[in-house]
């Protein structure tokens, strides 16, 4: 699995710097709680670039005039080390105007791209083919994006909304009974309060896998002449599969298999070769094709690395007495 490395002045780095600035300001807020500290430590652990950005923001915060105003009212300057060990909280919350001034100054110093992130509630994340990414939102919710995924985020006063345009994402939602978390994928909405689940949108269908908690899936946008599916509530360990040409199906998959992509793996249990090939091709590398249509129904089981399509093709060929033919950048499985 490719991991994108960005230079300091790329849009991605501007976003990371903006998140670091937001964390600095959030640590000084009177709304700070244990969940805030836990979410910060998770964000720092997710990527070494996060830790570096936090250190830069901390250094700048310490010399800003606005930060001095905040510190004078009881808030100390955080650091990566103290953040990892549950940073000490201010005895007295700083005035809102002082915190706002310091945060704005920090964002100006970090760069103009960062100020966009702070002043707009809408935010988008995407990954390229073969790339994965983890984002921590301002409420502590974590979103892991799988390969070739795009989503948009819009936090409102009463709702936290995400639109999954393509691909697959895992959501670890920070609990907030007064602000439900809603993911829209196609004509379906997945509503949660505080839970962990995966939503996948591909081939005109939607798959929702619930890891922990409860979610309710609703259909939206149906024409008046068309029947609307009743709301579906999932329990932990259940998966809802919605396809255009078949009835919706609820089953109980292996959670190890459902979350294998987070570990750079694909787990197959007696699936057609065509299904396994389609899954592996989602992650980049030399593309696999099936040279003989009769091979598409061969059954496949096993655990395979998502970043090595050549290894998968070789393993399948060896198991079934087949051959792998390389044609340009393509791996063709043939008899």
Characterization of the model:
This protein is α+β, with helices and mostly antiparallel strands. 32% of the residues lie in helices and 32% in strands. It contains 10 helices and 18 strands. The model is unreliable at 1-9, 65-77, 86-94 and 112-120 (pLDDT under 50).
Short characterization:
Strands 1, 2, 3, 4, 5, 6, 7, 8, 9, 10, 11, 12 and 13 form a 13-stranded mixed sheet that branches. This protein is of the alpha+beta class and 335 residues long.
Q: What is the element layout, followed by pairings?
A:
Layout: H1 11-28, H2 34-46, H3 48-63, H4 65-72, H5 80-84, H6 96-110, H7 112-119, E1 122-126, E2 133-136, E3 142-145, E4 150-155, E5 160-172, E6 181-185, E7 188-192, E8 196-202, E9 205-212, E10 214-219, E11 232-235, E12 239-243, E13 246-251, H8 255-258, E14 265-272, H9 273-280, E15 287-290, E16 299-305, H10 309-320, E17 323-327, E18 330-334
Parallel strand pairs: 5-6, 15-18
Antiparallel strand pairs: 1-4, 2-3, 3-5, 4-5, 5-8, 6-7, 7-10, 8-9, 9-12, 10-11, 12-13, 14-16, 17-18
Strand residue percentage: 25-35%
Low-confidence stretches: 1-9, 65-77, 86-94, 112-120
Portion of residues within helices: 25-40%
What sequence of helices (H) and strands (E) makes up the elements?
HHHHHHHEEEEEEEEEEEEEHEHEEHEE
Shape: globular
Structural class: alpha+beta
Report the sheet with the most strands, covering strand number, pairing sense and barrel closure.
13 strands, mixed
Radius of gyration: 23 Å
* Total helical elements: 10
